[in-house]
Amino acid sequence: MDWQADWGLRFRMFLTMFLLFALYIVFAGVLTAYVGGGLVVFALLFGGMSLVQYYFSDTLTLRTMGATEVTADEYPQLHGSVERLSQQADLPKPKVAVIDSNVPNAFATGRNQKNAAVAVTTGLMNTLDRDELDGVIAHELAHVKNRDMMVMTIASFLSTIAFMIVRWGALFGGGRNRQGGGIVVAIVASLVVWIISYILIRALSRYREYAADRGAAAITGNPAALASALVKIAGEMDRVPKNDMREEAEMNAFFIIPIKSGVVGRLFSTHPPTEKRIEQLRQLEQA
After folding, report:
1. What is the per-residue pLDDT for 263?
2. How far apart are CA 68 and CA 65, in angstroms?
3. Would you state the pLDDT for residue 121?
4. Cα separation, 264 vs 111, whole angstroms
């Protein structure tokens, strides 16, 4: 495997986390100055619950997506591919899970390389040939190796705190704060923080998909297989019924190709256009 550290991705991860934490320090200061301790306590409590959720992220995500952990006896070829590609990527073998769905998709989750899981749908296994499936699995393993799931999960939790305050801020604070406009200041500040967080997370999420595609090419040595898989998956996703996994659209950042949700959804997508990802893989094939 010709794996090289992606310093562009690492720099973007560091910069995103630095900016987010700086943003939230200022945010906490605004809440304290204009509202008092009520919303700050709320933010700390919600943050604590989020950290607990992060610690059990692999189990919780699999359960949320309806994924079932499977054994090598049940899916020997899938386990064989994950084990072989994990060895090629110099990674511990993650948990292997399957989702009973016709939607062709896959995702990886987990807080670190030793506590990771890779899940694929039955639709994906029925759509792709073996080399293409290897390309998709390698893409998910590249996410694990780059540790970008950890960064994206933490960043999303921070953004969610601001969103929750925007939604529920009026329930906190004393009468003095309501009369003095403190709650309004808190809600406006939360909205600004959430918007900035959203933009930062989306920018990082798109870059990490390019990085995972390059990582998959390095692991398999076959960028054409992943390009072919993306073409097939994109074509199948266009025919997905609206009620089939659409309720899981909030997990788009973890899918290999997001579940589409109209023009606005594509504009604010967690992923770059599939055409550009395929173009990068074609260039890697010719290199």
Report:
1. 45
2. 9
3. 94
4. 30
CA–CA distance, 250 with 246 (Å, rounded to integer):
9
> Count of residues for the chain?
287
Q: List CB contacts of 21: < 8 A, sequence separation 6 or more.
A: 158
Counting as low any pLDDT under 50, the low residues of the chain are 170, 172-180, 244-247, 249-250, 261, 263-265, 267
The verdict on whether 247 is a catalytic residue reads no
What is the predicted pLDDT for the residue at 27? 75
For tokens 């009620």, what's the residue?
243
Going 87 to 91 to 96 to 97, the CA torsion angle's sign is: negative
Q: What is the pTM of this model?
A: 0.80
Q: What is the pLDDT of residue 49?
A: 66
What's the CA gap between 89 and 128, in Å, rounded?
21
Q: Report yes or no: 121 and 101 within 8 Å, Cβ to Cβ.
A: yes
Task: Name residue, tokens 């987990």.
Answer: 110
Work out the number of other CB atoms within 10 angstroms of the CB of residue 117.
22
Q: What is the pLDDT of residues 182-208, one digit of tens each?
A: 667 777 877 888 888 888 888 888 899
| Measured distance CA(99)–CA(70) in Å, rounded | 10
Name the catalytic one among 132, 140, 236, 248. 140
Concatenating the DSSP letter of every residue in 81-131 gives HHHHHHHHTT-PPPEEEEE--SS--EEEEEEETTEEEEEEEHHHHHHS-HH
